[in-house]
Amino acid sequence: MTHIEQSGASTLTGSKQTMASWARVIESPEDIPPAYQDAYAAITQGKPEFPTLILTPASRELSRKISEKLLWTADKLLTVLERDGKQITVHQFALDTLRDVEVGTILLYSWITISGMTQTGEFAVSTLAFNTATLRHFTSLLEQAREFPAKAPSVAPHTEHAKLDYLQGSAYKFMNFGKSSLRPDAHVLGSLWQPEIRVKSFDLLGVKLYRTISTAHLLIITDKEITLIRDDARIKSVRGSRHGGVWRYIPKRSLVATEIGETTSDLLTMNLFLTNDGHLDILFAAEQRQALSEIQMLLP
Q1: Which of 18, 61, 106, 277 is in Cβ range 3.0-4.6 Å of 244 for a Cys bridge?
Q2: What structural domains does the chain harbor?
Q3: Rounded to whole angstroms, how far apart are CA atoms 219 and 212?
Q4: Residues 147, 152, 154, 157: is their CA dihedral positive or negative?
């Protein structure tokens, strides 16, 4: 369960512990937790409209510590107040200049990671953790962060979705993940599916043991962004499948260069070099060389 920092948390019932892991919408200034009131007042001074505020809990899921945060969007800015004890750190991101956005969902645990330059000219990364039951609260944020169009696009969604139908027999989960991840105005230029890559580790009494060096992943290139959807290696595979997934959305403006390389294990890597010294290496099997070269040609 999500770590509860208040004293006496161990005495909470299961249902109350679950509710404590939820993201919560703050509907009035009076409901803002005391720790954030001064920082909120200083930032919003002179602005009469009360924005939609979301409070996300502290978490220790998947062996990482994530602090409690209060956030809201207004005037194309995402403001994140991060609490560490009595200290409040402020990050403000321009939503139309973010470097990338990651969304992870594994059973009841979800997170969103925002990466980009802040209004103070510094590069920052901010992660929000919350119970998956409250993911709906972040729909507007994610649409703004990925620059969804304000008006209905002329693109026919079923036509673009059909470009991923080739995965129906081999990777049905990823086919659905891919279709649901597309921006409503996006044209799919190409995609490349890579099943989980496992290599032999050693033999034990005549039994061959294998280890996973890359989880299954799907790379989608559209005219708007690059999307990488993958299984999370921290989740154990059950009957060849892992629960949930991780989505990484990279706008094309964030891509500096691409490179195809080789590893010592005779595998290929698609290296994506991003702004602010960002770097993403994606593993593919050697037999994917031609397909990977074709994907590279679709990138700036």
Answers
A1: 106
A2: 9-145 (2.30.29), 157-296 (2.30.29.30)
A3: 19
A4: positive
